[in-house]
């Protein structure tokens, strides 16, 4: 039997920008739920992290290369979260992420998790750019420019 090769155009879904909002889809699997059958509360943080990471990748921010080059990395310094409604097994959720503020050493991103027209979860995320010693430092100029290309007012 010969090994099957994956299609050349097959890649993980990374979401996409429409105007200045990044849209990212998540399907709820059994492993995402708790014993009551609803999404375990901490999993919303994982879903939002994936959406933020792909949002940054979509605007050309290569976090891995910057970290490996010893320049620095983002760290979450604050997050205001709110649970509005539960999500359940097999739900299709959409995460909308918007950059609302950019500073020399950080950024602010607002995220909404929705199921159709229902608001499920919200997060206001503040991240700081840290040097390898863990101190806030200016993020790369290219990153600031990338954020400015999608910045929205709060």
TrEMBL record:
Record PROSITE patterns: 4HBCOA_THIOESTERASE
PANTHER family: 4-HYDROXYBENZOYL-COA THIOESTERASE FAMILY MEMBER (PTHR31793), ACYL-COA THIOESTER HYDROLASE YBGC (PTHR31793:SF37)
Pfam families in alphabetical order: 4HBT_2
Xref: InterPro entries: 4-hydroxybenzoyl-CoA_TE, HB-CoA_thioesterase_AS, HotDog_dom_sf, YbgC/YbaW
Family: Belongs to the 4-hydroxybenzoyl-CoA thioesterase family.
GO MF entry, a single one: fatty acyl-CoA hydrolase activity
Keyword Hydrolase: yes
The EC number(s) this enzyme carries: 3.1.2.-
Keyword check for Hydrolase: yes
Species annotation: Alterisphingorhabdus coralli
NCBIfam families: YbgC/FadM family acyl-CoA thioesterase
Assigned keywords, A-Z: Hydrolase
Name of the featured protein: YbgC/FadM family acyl-CoA thioesterase
């Amino acid at each position: 039997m010969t090994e099957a090769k994956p299609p050349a155009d097959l890649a993980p879904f990374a979401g996409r920008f429409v105007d200045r909002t990044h849209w990212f889809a998540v399907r709820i699997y059994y492993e995402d739920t708790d014993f009551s059958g609803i999404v375990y509360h901490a999993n919303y943080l994982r879903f939002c992290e994936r959406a933020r990471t792909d949002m940054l990748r979509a605007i050309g921010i290569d976090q891995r290369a910057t970290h490996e080059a010893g320049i620095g990395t983002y760290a979450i310094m604050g997050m205001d979260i709110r649970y509005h409604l539960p999500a359940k097994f097999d739900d299709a959720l959409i995460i909308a992420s918007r950059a609302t503020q950019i500073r020399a050493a950080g950024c602010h991103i607002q995220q909404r998790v929705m199921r159709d027209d229902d608001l499920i979860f919200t997060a206001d995320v503040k991240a700081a750019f840290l040097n390898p010693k863990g101190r806030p430092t200016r993020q790369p100029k290219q990153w600031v420019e990338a954020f400015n290309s999608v910045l929205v007012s709060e």
